[in-house]
Amino acid sequence: MSSVTDTKAKITIDGQEVTVPKSYTILQAARAAGINIPHLCYHPELAREGNCRVCLVEIEGGRSLAASCVYPVSDGMKVYTNTPIVRETRKTVVELMLANHPEDCLFCVKNRHCELQEIAADLGIRKVRFHGERRSAEIDDSNPSIVRDPEKCILCTRCVRACSERQGLDIYCIANRGFGSIVEPAFGLGLDKVACTYCGQCTTVCPTAALTERDDTQSVWDALADPDKYVVVQTAPSVRIGLGEEFGMKSGGIVTGKMVAVLRRMGFDKVFDTDFAADLTIMEEGHELLHRLKNGGVLPMMTSCSPGWVNFVETMHPEIIPHLSSAKSPQGMFGATVKTFFAERSGVNPAKIVSVAVMPCTAKKWEAKRPQLNDSGYRDVDIVITTREFARMIKQMGIDFMGLPEEEFDSPMGLSSGAGQIFGATGGVMEAALRTAYEVYTGKTLENIDFRGVRGLDGIKESSVDLGDGMILKVVVAHTLRNAEKLVQRILAGEADYHFIEIMACPGGCLGGGGMPYPTDTDIRRARIDAIYNADARMKYRKSHENPAIKELYETWMGKPLGERAHRLLHTHYTPIEDRLK
Fold first, then answer.
1. What is the CATH number of domain 4-82?
2. Highest CATH level, class, for 217-581
3. The model's pTM
4. Would you tell me which of 286, 451, 477, 532 could form a disulfide with 436, CB atoms 3.0–4.6 Å apart?
5. Over the stretch 463-509, which tens digit does the pLDDT of each residue have?
6. Who contacts 459 (Cβ-Cβ below 8 Å, separation ≥6)?
7. Do 471 and 480 meet the contact criterion of CB atoms below 8 Å apart?
8. In the chain, which segments carry CATH 3.10.20.740?
9. Would you say 366 and 142 are in contact if contact means Cβ atoms under 8 Å apart?
């Protein structure tokens, strides 16, 4: 039998002895020893490639410098990370990158968040010794959510791997050879002509500004400056647990009150909460599920609040469109409600309302432009900005964000339940729906409302709920489109005996969305998840159907869930997207 030591390797790094698993690379071993080796192509959640050569180290007895991110450790190895040849070689490698890189750091959107910029500073590069021909390529801004600037690409291929490994889409590839190499969609097509779902995971791993979210902040400023506009804003649950990271807070900090305060200071006429609309979504989606169960509807029913997932279905698997819930996402429901219910109750002309959404998700920009989302008689949501864009706006104002007082959302669309809050985490929509569906179906009070079986970061999570009368509700939760594809294949093969399926396009759910602060990794997602469930546990109301504002909405204006007005304003339909792939 092998001993524990057989699986370990004892190596020396810069004179420091460290014992690590034999499966480690030198880079991982150095991290364990508290030694930072600069790198660009390496990402802890993606396959290792070793193509940037920034992480080179010297190994005693080695014939040449080695890429530490792919070089495995071995017992007795001696590694040096800071010798003259290592420092000079790293500087040369980075200088060569900079020689083929735009010199617009001061006004680049990734300024102070650019890994190439940071490494150049850490290496003490003050000028570039190399000059010559530079890559020349046009910016691709054809996509409603993501902008691609090939001139800022350093060929690290993180986006290639993220799109393939996380989402299974393979949108990007390396074209051409040598100096002409470029990362782009196949055949040089624009991002609007390929099966991009707009999830933005490529933007979360890009070390430079080669891939970023489309910046819509100026549109918001323009609306706020227009005296003829009545500008309202909604904020998604994940925004309040990620925004603080942009201002020095540790991951998992909740800044709800300060977020509300800064939005008022920006000049919004009303500051509302997407969580209110999340509760509304549960009322409609939960009743839709029960309707399908009782009336022989298409099962399993699948959630429709993740626009990256919806786009995936419409683009890649239109044959399963009947399985999607017809309920709009919380963003969509809020938009329709604010320009009808709120406009009517407040006496505001809906034609003057500008509806702004602050979202953790780049795909929400695309969702707002869907031709189906104008049931209010107007564009339901006018402008969508990400958490990162929101943070940039706050910084432009020069406000001490962390010094702001705590303020409350406006009524009536600012009151929410804990069920609305947990929408931000993978499994949260499912848990919120189960809290309501159980009580509506059984007529009994649910004593234990924490459905821990659907929580956590496992890629696919199965659970079941006993509704009584022999009815066992089988549910499953998946996050990332690669895992979604696995469930789709089960459905198509007739092997999915579930009743309800939740899909989130991004790892961890919305809190790992393509518009959240840099960086986002597993530990950060866990901290954000803990924050979301802690917030839920402290809420006065923890079930969507117990939210007094939701009750009043139905009793006085909307009617019953799935009723005529609810169906017209809060539900939608889906269509195959064929023209994008022609």
1. 3.10.20.740
2. alpha beta
3. 0.95
4. 286
5. 999 998 889 999 999 999 999 999 999 999 999 999 999 999 999 99
6. 478, 479, 480, 482, 483
7. no
8. 4-82
9. no
